[in-house]
Design goal:
Oligomer: single chain
CATH class of the domain at 3-73: Alpha Beta
CATH topology of the domain at 3-73: Enolase-like, domain 1
Number of helices: 3
Distance between the termini: 41 Å
Largest sheet: 3 strands, antiparallel
């Protein structure tokens, strides 16, 4: 089984009443529904927050999903490590290895 498609759909969960705060008024909570489709027809569902920018988080998921297409969805640990390394461009991980050696 391999990952064939990752789709993110923005959703708004409406509040019963508007929420007023220092940066404005919020009518609902924004989330992204994430669907991970496989070549066997199975679909896994997850969600992501969509702050600070729904468009930015959606674009990030779309770009990052390119690294997961064609991979085995059951190799969660190795995919997670690869995903973190690719997204951080590894510069931040050098500091972790430095701490580990000290």
């Amino acid at each position: 089984m391999i990952i064939t498609e990752i789709k993110a759909t923005p959703l708004i969960v409406p509040y019963k009443e508007p929420y007023y705060w220092a940066q404005g008024i919020m009518d609902g909570a924004g989330v992204l529904l994430v669907e991970i489709k496989t070549d066997s027809g199975l679909i896994g569902y997850g969600e992501s927050i969509s702050t600070p920018s729904p468009q930015g988080v959606h674009a990030f998921i779309k770009e990052a999903s390119k690294f997961l297409i064609g991979e085995n969805p059951f190799h969660i640990s190795s995919l997670w490590i690869r995903f973190i390394m690719l997204c951080s461009k590894q510069e931040g991980l050098v500091g972790l290895h430095d701490l580990e050696l000290k």
